[in-house]
Automatic annotation (TrEMBL):
It comes from Rotaria magnacalcarata. PANTHER family: RZ-TYPE DOMAIN-CONTAINING PROTEIN. This is Uncharacterized protein. InterPro entries: RNF213. GO terms for molecular function: ATP hydrolysis activity; ubiquitin-protein transferase activity.
Length: 117
């Protein structure tokens, strides 16, 4: 929820203010399954949280899930051609301004995946 994000960001913002010469990296996972995409857009693009400026030494990064194209007839294909293993979550379309930040790293090959699982 927006309140959880605000509570999460509060100590990070305070720490960033205390150590302004160090860049803090904040990672959010599965951003596009959240109902708070507008708030993520505000933080990532505008550098504010509910209109309050965030310290400039906070760098945001995030992971998103592939969106499923419901018109392709296959519930296991994504629009990028990757296989979807889970269909039990809702993936929301990103705000247009966040699309410019997307970078597709593809998927890991099976041998590399074994190193991480």
């Amino acid at each position: 929820t927006e309140e959880q994000i605000k509570d999460f960001m509060f100590p990070i913002s305070k720490l960033a203010e205390q150590i302004p010469k160090i860049e803090l990296v904040v990672f959010f996972d599965e951003v596009n399954t959240s109902s708070c995409l507008g708030l993520f857009k505000e933080m990532f693009m505008d550098g504010t949280l509910h209109g309050t400026n965030l310290p400039k030494n906070i760098f945001f990064t995030a992971a998103i899930n592939p969106s499923i194209n419901p018109n392709d007839g296959s519930q296991k294909q994504t629009k990028d051609g990757f296989q979807v293993h889970r269909l039990d979550y809702i993936v929301h379309e990103l705000p247009q301004s966040l699309n410019s930040l997307k970078v597709s790293y593809g998927i890991l090959d099976p041998n590399t995946l074994k190193d991480y699982v």
